[in-house]
Amino acid sequence: MLGRTANNIFWMFRYLERAENTARLLEAAHRISMTRGGDAASEEWKSVIATLGFRPAYQAVFPDYSAAHVCDFVLRGKGNAESVMWMFETARTNARLCRSAITGEVWEAVNEGWMTLHDLLARPVRESNLGTALAAIRRESTLARGATHGSMIRDEVYSFARLGTFVERGDNTARILDMKYYVLLPSISYVGTALDTGQWEHVLRALSGERAYRWLNAGRMDARSITNFVILDERFPRSLAFCFDQLRENLASLALLHGGEGEANVLIRDADQTLSQRSIDDIFDQGLHQFLLEFISTNRLIAEKIGQDFRFID
Amino acid sequence: MSGPDGPKFDEMRAEDGGVRPAYAEYCEWLDAQEKGWMRRKGFEAESFFRRTGITFNVYGENDAEERLIPFDMVPRIITAGEWRRLSRGIEQRVRALNAFMHDLYHRQEIIRSGRLPERLFRNNEAWLPQMVGFTPPGGVYTHIVGIDLVRTGPDEFLVLEDNARTPSGVSYMLENRETMMAMFPELFSKIQVEPVSNYPRRLAKSLAACAPECAGENPTIAVLTPGIYNSAYFEHAFLADQMGAELVEGTDLRVIDGRVQMRTTSGFQPIDVLYRRVDDDYLDPLTFNPDSVLGVPGIFDVYRAGGITIANAPGTGICDDKAIYAFMPDIVQFYTGEAPLLPNVETWRCADPDSLKYVLENLPDLVVKEVHGSGGYGMLIGPTASKKEIAAFRHKLQAKPHNYIAQPTLSLSTCPVYTKAGLAPRHVDLRPFVLVSPEGVDITPGGLTRVALKKGSLVVNSSQGGGTKDSWVLSD
């Protein structure tokens, strides 16, 4: 397949995944803010903007961090070059660009998703509608992924779709974790308090992991076992370990197809192995924030190598 | 030939109100449907098109990077007998077009014989001196041709235009049929309609048969598109998809080791046949327009050295020229030795002083077209034009007579379309699609019927607000 097409597929799935996770992040913040109220709530919304790296662009448009303003900026973004609507638009443009590489089902899922969100986000989203809008974003992204899963043959195109999905998901999960640990808690003395635990629960919910976690941990709810679950549990499809595992597998099948490994293969194998040898105690000893920054940076490097190995651009 | 006020030929109904043979079974089916049902089907079709994203980009419209071409649910039906006659005429014409181009770029017998004035191609932008003395692989110039036909009576089909450069619209032919089969499956089990769905396979086969000698057993075919903002991007993607070929842009291609190669995830790979949907001018910045970023630097040298087949061949646009069109009856006669089976629409060449005089005297009754214009732009439709428009055109004609031809306003046949008020007649034309390879001429039964959706309008171009219909050729 063409390097340009591989690039389009990769980014199409990155944007679909990022749109979904942005909705998840907003949902977590929304839930957390509802349990606090007032000025504290505005800190929550501020953390969303910080996590997404939107601070300068946001401050150029809005003076405060109200729920309405943050949601509007993140979802439809006047002045936001990477709003959720823009991501869906870009995913759809990419789908058009490589229509001959994806199935009709995938195209229709992305196209219909774009149409749905286009209608839904035509006007500012009210707080009363926020849940509906966020659910719709998640659903449309899920439908596109489902169509990919159910209709695409397991060839190169599929591998690049999966690589895009998991590069993005790993990055996003790490950022959501980082928001919780580094940005949200007023001070370190709150660790282990009800506020702390409550926030962790919302993070789990945002990652659709609360039921699985509860099932596995018999109702225990503490930072260590939650982070263990979200970072190291290979059974959980949004964990960092799962994402690396998927990257390794998909790069391995590409190596098989191409009759040889590239730099990305080597990098992910090492990274995956290193991660699987870590324990949660290790990670806390190193410092969670530090660990997450390292993860994000390794993940980004892998993405770059994928682009180089497979000639995404000339 | 009858004028616009003469008797109109309705494809479905005879003047006495009876149903013409082509529509007998269809009308019987239609009459049996309950009221309001067709209307619901209309909404269904619209949403089907939106969802699948069958769109057409229109230049110069603010809100419309993508627009749907209106689709009408009533098919245009042609009997097997009519189609046989049409096919013979089309094949004859397409063979003549290819022989003509070979001659023009080689010995120019037709010029020497005095049948065609030399200035016709010498001053023509579509004429490529770079093609002189070169024979494309398999001797084929125009691999994919669209012949625009109009009808004025039961046995009167006329050629309105030849599209030998890059005819578009074939994806609508295919999608229209898909839509009809999805909406009215029972109709297709009742009426035997010749299938069109194998067109992409036939296209791939025909293109492969034109591969250069350096190609292996299974030639690599790619479709070259100018990109997503081109008005026919959907079609380019669609055809590449249906053929199982790569859809490439200029930036994906590079000349390496005397071959045109595409950048794949596992390195550069040579292409044998390039179905290009990029104009000659933008094909190779080293040979043609140096500012172009759409094409491939050096591709023309590879082509001349036999390293790739370009379809259609550069320089075929000369046949789309309306001044050449005016000579087509002579051209057919000259190369086939036979009288043309499909006549031209009567055409006055304004370069000729007597014709110009006639045209200037009869402007309100004529259609005047720019020789190099396309897509319904730059034309005057006398009967519907204002006095001011006619006066303006008179000036243009007098200033540059050789730039124009004129034709009578024909009473084009009509075919019913579905409107809110029920069926109503609208003017139609037909563009059948023809494939040419050393193995022969292959015409897909049917084609794209374009329909003027405004009452009384003769303009069927999609860029001018026309719509399309499914076109049926009945089986014997």
Summed up:
The complex is a heterodimer of chains A (314) and B (476). By secondary structure, chain A is mainly α. Helix content of chain A is 76%, strand content 0%.
Please describe what this structure looks like:
The complex is a heterodimer of chains A (314) and B (476). The two termini of chain A are 14 Å apart. Chain A is mainly alpha-helical and 314 residues long. The mean pLDDT of chain A is 91. Chain A is globular. Helices cover 76% and strands 0% of the residues of chain A. In chain A, α1 packs antiparallel against α4 (67-75). Chain A contains 15 helices and no strands. The longest helix of chain A is centred in the first third of the chain and has 32 residues, at 3-34. Chain A has helices spanning 3-34, 38-51, 55-59, 67-75, 84-97, 104-120, 127-151, 156-184, 194-206, 210-217, 223-232, 240-258, 263-276, 280-286, 288-309. Chain B has 476 residues and is of the alpha+beta class. Chain B contains 14 helices and 20 strands. Chain B is globular and about 65 Å long. The model of chain B is unreliable at 57-64 (pLDDT under 50). The chains are: A mainly alpha (314), B alpha+beta (476). Chain A binds chain B through residues 1-6, 93, 96-100, 104, 107-108, 111-112, 115, 156, 254, 257-258, 310-311, 314, and chain B through 50-53, 228, 233, 237-238, 240-241, 245-249, 251-252, 262-267.
Summarize this structure as a short list of keywords or feature phrases.
heterodimer, A: 314 residues, mainly alpha, B: 476 residues, alpha+beta, 5-stranded mixed beta sheet, 4-stranded antiparallel beta sheet
Query: Counting H and I runs of at least 4 residues, what is the number of helices of chain B?
Result: 14
- The side-by-side strand order for the widest beta sheet of chain B comes to 1-20-19-16-15
Average pLDDT level of chain B: 89
Low-pLDDT segments of chain A: none
Number of strands of chain A: 0
What Rg of chain B, in angstroms, do the CA atoms define? 23 Å
How many H/I helical runs of chain A?
A: 15
The number of E-state strands of chain B comes to 20
Main sheet attributes: strand count, strand direction, barrel closure of chain B: 5 strands, mixed
What is the average per-residue confidence, as pLDDT of chain A, rounded to a whole number?
91
The coarse overall form of chain A would be globular
H/E element string of chain A?
HHHHHHHHHHHHHHH
Strand content of chain B: 15-25%
Q: Which structural class fits the helix and strand makeup of chain A?
A: mainly alpha
